[in-house]
Amino acid sequence: MGDDPASRIYVNNKKKACEYCGIRSFEYAMPAETTQEELMALIEKLNNDDSVDGILCQLPIPKHLDEKAVINAIRPDKDVDAFHPANVGKIMIGDYDFLPCTPAGVMELIKESGIDITGKECVVIGRSNIVGKPMAMLLLHAHGTVTICHSRTKDLAETVRRADIVVAAVGVPELITGDMIKEGAVVIDVGMNRLADKKLVGDVEFSGASEKASAITPVPGGVGPMTIAMLMKNTVKAALVHSENK
Ligand code: L34
């Protein structure tokens, strides 16, 4: 929706990944002036199209459009982002069909690196519905001791210093500095901030944090590609469920 330059890059990366995996993808590039009715009509059409297994509306969308209504309109069994309240509720209970792509990608990175979460102090910085909240829930399901920090947190540095596993997802360039990282901590950077000079930096100051961390993700080339990989996984899962129900 509209012409957000970052979304353009992310959507192009998603289309390339679909091609690589053999998933057919269809882009509906809608102008910024699109009305809510037009957008809802498109979602309804895709909801009812049996040849479509997954639907994703890349966020953010222009301000005049109702994001909540869009998320609610996507059929839960085609909701490959897992943003629909029905899917969010299932994640809470731990009985889910889809996991939201970014938190799922973070969990995959941690597990594939052989890092055990059980009993670890996990600090998530950021409380968005899309990343922070579900991230905390997945770490909790994996038996971590979870703290969520946000803009009103009294002593961010002191809280982060306790963490064995740090997940930064606030959208503030290099907010988390090396002095906040405990020796040997695992640092996951979800931030994707484009500076005025076009440089892409995360929420973690990489050079300082990497001197303390036992494992750390870079930006770019860290969580971003994992988000896309998890989208492919969710889409294949949706297709399998739909083919079983045919
Ligand atoms: N509906 N909206 C919906 N679903 C999502 O899962 C997303 N997200 C976030 C933004 N809006 C969304 C994404 O797709 C963030 N995000 C995303 C996806 C891919 C990449 C980054 C964020 C990515 O490919 N990152 C590359 C660098 C790309 C660049 O050069 O800017 C990387 O290596 O990190």
Protein described:
This protein has 246 residues and is an alpha/beta fold. The chain has two domains: 1-78, 3-Layer(aba) Sandwich (Rossmann fold); 101-224, Rossmann fold (3-Layer(aba) Sandwich), CATH 3.40.50.720. Helices cover 41% and strands 10% of the residues. It contains nine helices and seven strands. The protein has helices at residues 5-21, 36-47, 67-73, 85-93, 101-112, 132-141, 156-161, 206-212, 223-244; strands spanning 121-125, 145-149, 165-168, 186-189, 193-194, 200-201, 215-216. The strands form two sheets. The protein has a five-stranded parallel β-sheet, sandwiched between helices. Strands 5-6 form a two-stranded antiparallel ribbon. The radius of gyration is 18 Å and the shape is globular. The model has no long low-confidence stretch (mean pLDDT 97). The protein binds ligand L34. Ligand L34 binds at residues 9-10, 13, 56-59, 81, 101-102, 192, 200, 219-221, 224-225, 227-228.
Protein traits:
246 residues; Rossmann fold; 5-stranded parallel beta sheet; 7 strands; 41% helix; binds ligand L34
Q: What is the approximate shape?
A: globular
Question: Order of strands in the sheet with the most strands?
Answer: 2-1-3-4-7
* Number of self-contained structural domains: 2
Residues in helices, as a percent range: 40-55%
Radius of gyration: 18 Å
Largest sheet: 5 strands, parallel
Bound molecules: ligand L34
What order do the SSEs take from the amino end to the carboxyl end, as H and E?
HHHHHEHEHEEEEHEH
Q: How many extended strands? A: 7
